[in-house]
Design brief:
This protein is mainly α. It contains eleven helices and no strands.
Length: about 230
């Protein structure tokens, strides 16, 4: 667990460390970005190993998003190439198709190994997950992808939800059978974000203030809940 999170934290913290007059360490090395992209996109057969690779891919995606935004803000030149934009879009497609959010939740956050780890370590892990997801949900490309997945999920759910008003028990069974796995990535994303801010509340007394705790909730509400409620009406 520690080795895995060390890599996740390194990718996120490196991108967050960039300042207006100084790029992050990894940003300066285009060849590394290309090679690492190829490494995280390899095909893995073992489902557990595949899940952990997907989580690293998720952290790598956020890293690329952060350095892309940083370069845009600094206007310092072509540090981030068109290849990086393609890498962002490729990673986005794969993490949703693999439903990385479900693996994060079921195989990491909800495991005894994570929940019974040293309290300070859990705090650090969750602090970076919180930052990672806040950055992820704030990026325009991720928001567009989430909207696309949400729309597909609603397309799958709507016919069965409407039919359930006529025959609740029968159509509920149809709903359970026919809506998976199409809406699952969207549902897992909602559950994953919920899980993160619940952990933030649980360990928040260590050093989070209320404003920091509310950040992920605000992001959740802004990009998901309003559209979800509107769809149900």
């Amino acid at each position: 667990m520690a080795s895995f999170f060390s890599l996740v934290v390194a990718l996120v913290s490196d991108a967050l460390s960039a300042v207006p007059d100084k790029a992050s360490i990894l940003t300066r090395d285009a060849s590394f970005r290309h090679e690492f992209q190829e490494s995280v996109m390899v095909t893995v057969e073992d489902p557990v190993v595949k899940g952990y690779v997907s989580c690293v891919r998720h952290a790598w995606l956020v890293h690329l998003m952060l350095i892309h935004d940083g370069v845009d803000a600094q206007e310092t030149g072509p540090i981030v190439s068109s290849h990086d934009l393609r890498h962002i879009n490729t990673c986005l497609d794969v993490i949703f198709s693999d439903n990385v959010f479900q693996f994060w939740m079921k195989n990491i956050l909800q495991t005894p190994a994570y929940q019974n780890d040293d309290e300070d370590m859990v705090y650090m892990y969750n602090a970076y997950l919180h930052k990672m997801m806040t950055c992820f949900l704030s990026h325009p490309l991720a928001r567009d992808k989430v909207k696309e997945v949400k729309d597909k999920a609603m397309t799958e759910l709507s016919p069965y939800r409407m039919a359930s008003s006529h025959n609740h028990m029968v159509d509920r069974s149809m709903h359970a059978q026919k809506t998976e796995p199409a809406p699952q990535a969207f549902i897992s994303l909602l559950e994953f974000v919920s899980e993160i801010y619940q952990i933030v509340e649980r360990v928040g007394s260590l050093s989070y203030n209320q404003q920091e705790i509310d950040e992920v909730r605000d992001t959740w509400a802004k990009y998901f809940i309003v559209e979800w409620i509107n769809t149900l009406h």
